[in-house]
Amino acid sequence: MKTKPEEIISKASVTLKRKNSPRQKKEYLPLSGKVHPAREHKKVNNKDSIFSPEYTVTSTTDGNGRLLKNVEVICCFWGRFWTRTSPAPSPSGGDYANAIQFMLTGTYLTKMSQYRSIGKGTLVYCDFNDSSDPADNYTNADVINMLKDRFQHSGMPNPASGHDRFYAVIVPPGIRNSLHQYAGEHGSFDYNSTKAYFAWIGNTGSLTGHDSVTKVFSHELVEAMSDPDVDNTRAKGILVNGKKSDGTAVNNDEIGDTCNDQYATVDSNGVSCTLQSYWSKEDNACVLPVNPPKNSSLDIVAVRKIHSRSLGLDYIDKVKALSSGFTYWLHRSEVVDLILSNNNRFFVNGDDGTRSEVMVEHHYIKTRPDWSKRDNLLSLPTF
Description:
By secondary structure, the protein is of the alpha+beta class.
């Protein structure tokens, strides 16, 4: 079964620390591509955009290897679970695709441009493979063989020269890769003399949390874009070096590993999902670019309302806002914080030509009163 991304969205609206040997007491040796489970207590506040890495970073290197500058993501939901479960899975494949679309086309990847002008991505295809089921303890070879079979017997786009295609395989909840200690891994294989880049993503059955699909996918996405040829020892991509608090040297970490425990839950078109930060050389910090820049202005174009029985009125719970070509879905408390702490300004445009600024009053938001009712928050479309 196959579904184009616009169809599926509409339905929903590594590191391995080796044990130190006598010769390697103070060296941290990564096996690139794999992601450790994150520590739940290390999650960051979703109003933050810059925070500290896992260790002191001393350098960021570019080995001039290949980068996926215009990544084309192909999702593969592997197993009959996705199409034959009754009631339908929740989160659904559409929910995951919606969140992935948000990562690729929103502000999340904007800081990747510092690395040889890596651009945004595109969700080009979503495949529901209900012709086979992943077995518990499936291997990387199983994933590769499954993808090769889909290349030959489904409408899944094949690897092609001139295309930065990245195949993200999402398994049913509870199905584990043979590498139990990891939550996901990215790598590559050859198909018809073309390199195919892929990742398998573990599934906790949730869009949110420290090992959720979206958290792990975001980790693997930025690493695959910045260091896709993990097995190439000669031409590497963007790698990070540093030193841990106990003096252990960190060499050749990928930009997701450096920030593995720094993540937050954000709102993606009304769907909450957890995303991980990634290392930014120019900021010398981990970044999670999901909020608007400081001092910027935004136009609110839709709202989500909640009715308060005790107050006997409706109030705004979430907003959809536009700025500089980007869309932001923000909780009311985030709007309050952005106005008070980030110097952002929010406006409502009436269809009668009026424009009213949003103000904060007792931790709620409202438009400044004027003679028109067309530029009132409560008059906007709902989502």
